[in-house]
Write a structure and sequence with these properties.
This protein is an alpha+beta fold. Helices cover 51% and strands 19% of the residues. The strands form four sheets. It has a six-stranded mixed sheet, covered by helices on one side. It is flat and about 120 Å long. It comes from Paenibacillus roseus.
């Protein structure tokens, strides 16, 4: 006992003899070890959760894009089916209640359907049935064969009759066709009505290849080896894949009331991040599955960097603590006084005459830090400018294809119906439109050029819709040479036409105004159409720019102008249901003079 007490006294004495510097070193080494361990564990947990949330948000956005593309594909095929229903030869054949009664008419129907399948590769085969269950088919005879004795035996027969002429979608014909185990198809089924009496005279079935839906997400860059699965209302895979649909069916049954969901789950023994989006229009589900190991491999380097940052910060804390003593109180106060200037935004190097000892090195490190902060501020400002320009380019790239798709659809429809004169006019107008809007690669054009492009656009729409609308231009000639980003007025006019005039169901007038007002340029598009309610106005005034067809044209245009002119409040929208809509854009007149005087005229 006495020996032990002596040994403890000796240890206590030796500890007392250790210098303060070494004591601080030992103390902070212990703190360093604990700090690194705790911070590393917390960092990994927080970083993994943040990455998981970001990946989930990104995957949901991708699924929304796929949903939009799938719906666009189905809408295009729906338009082709409507054109087929209106074919006079087909109508005549079905009115006779026997599709084989008139061979000459049957031949013309056959030629029409063959041309349709050749022009639209998404369609694999076309069936139609008269009211006597006579069957006629055009397509690959080796696949999509109808196996029922009568069309009335199909499980969906009464459903399609009760659907008021709208189509229904059934995977592999809803059991009405022989199924090929190697490939799927989706049947678009609808009633054929007599164009004169509106009575049902038959059933039309368009069998759509599964590859048409694969193209909806085939261009997605899949750096995380993400699998995309498209499921019908019965949770069956529309596109043949090796995905674990059994596990997905159990998962979807738990979230079937949700529009979208992100969950981490086990599939075939693999840890997966599963994202789900429900398409309420068809009761389909779009699911993406990304292996967590792919995410972990990508984030491993970032984790190591984070750990290294934590270790480096801890080491710097340790080094700074070693040199704390009363001998350096005065120079540290000077250093602290200089640091307080940072709070006021003054980044000024400190001058402390302490030679090249530890405090001198601390002074030099502080001065280097100030220099790096100054450089960082400059770099952040430059990066911010680049980001804003990138956002502008992105929004412009998104909006450019919009009009071309619709115009090509119109040209295709006119060509199919044999209206060659209208095809020539619309192609000529389209060429003039793109000569103006491509502008030899320039993104900035004059208001005069913008109006010329708008006139070409409306000329095309006039061919499509005839007397549905008229246009009035009220333009101050003084601003024709002012420069703005191109494609500003077209989206607004397009919304006025589609969601104002056309939605009203009767002819209307679109008024385009451009004039000067107190150092600003006012651009205005007004219509006397259907107008919009308060809910739609709030959607257009929201902060988030989404892909909604009604809001994207207006809000995308506003975002482009906000980025280009650096002005936040640039647009005012006035509308009431039944009283039309007026969109007013006010932008700075950076090129004109407040003393300009000129005439106000009609710009035709």
């Amino acid at each position: 006992m006495q020996v032990a007490r002596q040994w403890m006294n000796q240890v206590r004495q030796r500890l007392s003899d250790i210098s303060i510097t070494n004591k601080l070193a030992i103390f902070y080494v212990l703190i360093l070890i604990i700090s690194i361990t705790v911070c590393t564990l917390l960092y990994q947990q927080i970083y993994s959760r943040l990455v998981y949330n970001k990946i989930g948000e990104a995957s949901i956005q991708i699924l929304y894009s796929i949903k939009s593309s799938v719906n666009q594909t189905i809408d295009n095929l729906n338009n082709y089916s409507k054109m087929t229903l209106a074919n006079e030869d087909l109508q005549s054949t079905l009115r006779n209640r026997n599709i084989y009664s008139d061979l000459a008419t049957q031949k013309r129907v056959h030629e029409y359907l063959v041309h349709l399948i050749e022009a639209v590769p998404q369609i694999e085969s076309v069936y139609f049935f008269d009211n006597e269950s006579h069957e006629y088919m055009v397509g690959n005879l080796g696949i999509n064969q109808f196996k029922l004795g009568s069309i009335e035996d199909a499980s969906w027969y009464h459903e399609v009759l009760d659907n008021n002429g709208s189509y229904i979608l059934k995977l592999n014909g809803g059991g009405a066709f022989f199924k090929d185990e190697k490939r799927n198809f989706v049947s678009m089924i609808r009633v054929v009505r007599d164009t004169e009496s509106i009575k049902p005279i038959g059933i039309l079935i368009l069998n759509i290849r599964e590859s048409a839906f694969q193209l909806s997400y085939g261009d997605i860059v899949d750096q995380y080896k993400t699998n995309i699965t498209l499921l019908d209302e019965n949770k069956e895979s529309i596109v043949n894949t090796d995905d674990a649909t059994n596990e997905l069916e159990g998962y979807l049954s738990k979230v079937e009331t949700k529009e979208y969901d992100v969950k981490r789950m086990q599939i075939d023994g693999d840890d997966m991040i599963v994202s789900h989006l429900r398409d309420s229009q068809f009761n389909w589900n779009i699911v993406s599955m990304m292996p967590v190991r792919e995410l972990s491999s990508e984030s491993r380097a970032v984790n190591w960097i984070g750990v290294a940052v934590i270790v480096m910060n801890s080491i710097l804390l340790f080094i700074g603590s070693v040199f704390i003593s009363r001998m350096i109180t005065t120079p540290i106060k000077k250093l602290l006084a200089s640091m307080r200037g940072i709070e006021r935004g003054v980044f000024k190097p400190v001058e402390i005459n302490v030679g090249r000892n530890e405090i001198g090195r601390l002074r030099d490190g502080y001065n280097i830090m100030i220099s790096e902060i100054q450089n960082l501020i400059k770099r952040v400002i430059e990066e911010h400018k680049i980001k804003r320009q990138t956002e502008l380019n992105l929004l412009q790239a998104q909006i450019k294809p919009h009009f071309l798709y619709n115009t090509l659809d119109s040209i295709n429809a006119l060509a199919i119906t044999g209206k060659t004169d209208e095809v020539s006019e619309i192609v000529e107008a389209l060429g003039h439109y793109y000569r103006i809007n491509l502008s030899k690669g320039r993104e900035i054009i004059t208001i005069g050029e913008e109006l010329d492009g708008l006139r070409s656009y409306l000329a095309i729409q006039k061919i499509r819709y005839g007397s549905m609308f008229d246009v009035v231009y009220e333009v101050d000639e003084r601003i024709l040479n002012r420069r703005i980003p191109k494609l500003i007025l077209q989206p607004l006019v397009e919304n006025a036409l589609y969601h104002g005039i056309r939605a009203q169901g009767e002819p209307g007038v679109i008024t385009v105004t451009a004039n000067l007002a107190a150092g600003s340029i006012l651009l205005q598009v007004a219509d006397d159409g259907a107008g919009m309610d308060e809910e739609m106005l709030q959607l257009l005034s929201g902060e988030k720019l989404d892909s909604d067809a009604v809001s994207f044209g207006v809000r995308g245009t506003m975002e482009r102008l906000r980025i280009f002119f650096g002005v936040d409040h640039i647009c005012q929208i006035e509308s009431k249901p039944g009283n039309g809509t007026k969109v007013t854009i006010q932008i700075p007149d950076t090129e004109g003079s407040e003393h300009d005087r000129g005439s106000f005229s009609q710009y035709d």
